[in-house]
Amino acid sequence: HDVMICIGTAAMVSDERRMHYPTEVYFKSAREMAVLFSEVPEAITNTLRIADMCDLQLEFGTSKYPDYQPPTGITREQMLRKLSLEGLKRRYGTRAEEDIDLRNRLDYELSILERTGFTSYFLIVWDFIHFARQHDIPVGPGRGSAAGSLVAYALEITDLDPLRFGLIFERFLNPERVSPPDIDIDFCQTRRGEVIEYVRTKYGARAVSQIVTFGTLGAKSVVRDVGRVMGLSYSEGDRIAKMIPNELGITLKAAVEKNPDLKQAVESEPNTRQLWNYATVLEGLSRNTGIHAAGVVIGDRRLDDYIPLCRGNDDEVVTQYAMGPLTDLGMLKMDFLGLKTLTVIHDTVALIRQTEPDFALDTIAFDNRPTFDLLNRGETIGVFQLESGGMINLCRQFDVNSIDDIIALIALYRPGPMELIPDYIKRKKGLTKIKYEHPLLKEVCADTYGIMIYQEQVQRAANILAGYTLAQADLLRRAMGKKDKEKMAKERVNFIEGCKRVNNLDEKKANAIFDLLEKFAGYGFNKSHSAAYGLISYQTAFLKANYPVQFMAGLLSNEINNTDKISVLVTECQRLGITILPPDINNSQLKFRPEIQDGRQGIRYGLSAIKNIGETAMASAIQERDQNGPYKALEDYCSRLDSKTVNRKILENLIRAGAFDFVGKDRAELFAKIEQALAAGTAAQRDRKSGQVSLFGELDLAPGGRNENDSPYYTPWSLAEKLGFEKELLGFYVTGHPLDAYRDLIEKGRYLPIELLSGKDDKATVSITGFIASVDKKFTRKDGKPFAIAIVEDFTGAAEVVIWGDVFTNFGKELEKGKIVAVSGRLEKRGEEGA
Predict the structure, then answer these.
(1) In this structure, are residues 445 and 142 in contact, taking their beta carbons and an 8 Å threshold?
(2) Which of 21, 52, 424, 763 has its CA 20 to 30 A from that of 315?
(3) Residue-wise pLDDT tens digits, 350-399
(4) 530 to 339, 409, 410, 569: CA distances (angstroms)
């Protein structure tokens, strides 16, 4: 507990002046309390009296949802039906009138919503999504099981046709096991706050709150935290933490059993043993409170009538109950999720409309060949859900030919179902014959080559073969997924009887089919969610395949605060043949934008993406430029902008990044003139304020004017210095590459490009070459032996190289920043992406 206090107060165990508890901290028995307060017995009796006076009633299972208020003269049920019918006509045109099955499905869903009391819920969700769409705030096509609802599609709560993708309403709302529907919504990450504020205004500030989360001490984090308060170095705590396998939900006990090196460290190193003893006790405890990234609770009255509230770090109102208890109490809990991809898509479409005003993403066809070709080549950087190394390899094997293939990819690429992938691909390519336990199963899973990969397929199979309703089939699916043996035994009997009654199947065949369904139910993924996210994957792949310049500009603009990610995206642009034009104070906007130069399409670097440059300052500079014309020189820039926009640090970084190259002078010369330019700018602004005007107007600030020969002495930067500044501030090299002189040698194939390391097996021996971007020479904690950690870069990426023992002894003196090296060594992979 003492260590726990240190973690919470950021103190060291060795600090005697830190916070201490003066007594034991545990729940004492009544006898112990009586002894402690023997001199004041009324303290005990008064405590009991107060406890008896407290009367807290927690009401479970009763809805505390707000009631949506419809216009006067119409009920909620009438309003929902009216909106649904209007939406059905928008979505399906004349089919909405002619297709009886379509109308019957809508009527069925509406009747279930009315019977279960969730009409108001749907209207609440429709209302804030309607607000978002009216205000051009991007909304996702859906997530989770809500995409299976035709009413949700008609109301534009979701954006994919549940009939086209074979989605089931009962997977979303089961009338035979009524539980609150859960519609989670993806919004544009930068504007989701506007939707939350709308909800807060509509239902009352005291009736809407964000939801608390409790951060727990996980296996790796507790080791690092305990190591820190014990006074161990970061590298020592990190060393132990990295010995813990990267497995979801791994415990410290399991980690020791799985990693012999960790077990040896715990047994043989006193510091590690003490750290481990503390960490195993503290593992899993709550470390701190936070605010749920997306969760918002909405009540039908002031929330403090139902639940305890508190204030967050920024004085916002936060529940003291987490998600689970809030649902148990019948509170309306909504997830307003921020999805950056929606912002990327929105920005890309806006750029496309500059040249194609009528472009609309919701009208694109689902059979675009260039899109599928791009996926099959594995060119998926920036494509939603498909850009990891494993997904890239899977796309190359999969032979994607439809959006349904993309949906299947997303469902299959998870622990468990991944073992089905080789057989799935063989069946898809006709290398293995497709077999069905019963001909009726072809109707269920022909699209997935006889392999059930979706939960909805299990439902359909039970419905068709054994006569289950889709609602009953959902309960069967849940029982199978949870491996509830008692329920499964009962369901097996029901299934066998149903198969006999409906299809005259014998018990042996029915048992075999039941076993098959049970197997796939454990793997099955929610197709509604996979289809909704598959739609976003298709849209991003479509944009990249057909509008690569606009799409990459949109991607880059949404990574303006992540120079490392910009570097990856710039490399992808170069691979696509898209030129990245350097920042220019006269041509750049705040964000990246398409620009044609010398007849070729390129992307101009956004000013706000330059590292350590304030967005506000650059917005002011662009506004002044747009109003009064391009800047003519460094001094002109300084004279036209106030001191909030112009200071030495900003000018240094703009010059280093090449934003003033249009002046035609060496960057080092411009850098040396900063003080002079700032002084001239201050004087010009002072003169303007006092009403003085130069005799020659702005001519003295133009290139070739009186400042032309006033540059102080300067030393030109070396190419390495110039490139180093570009890499630091922009994330890539603009005017060249440190390896340009060695390009022919490097590209002959002797060395593995760094970007391909992720495709190699762990512990494989590989050879790379590149230049040393950084080097950190250290000593081992245990025996003080020297070693080094270097970052080596080539044309495709960067890798961390650790140099130990004799290799360091022999080559340590050669390890200098900027040197070109060739490296052979053993590959150590960290997760899927890192090496």
Answers:
(1) no
(2) 21
(3) 999 999 999 999 899 999 999 999 999 999 999 999 998 889 989 999 99
(4) 16, 9, 6, 26
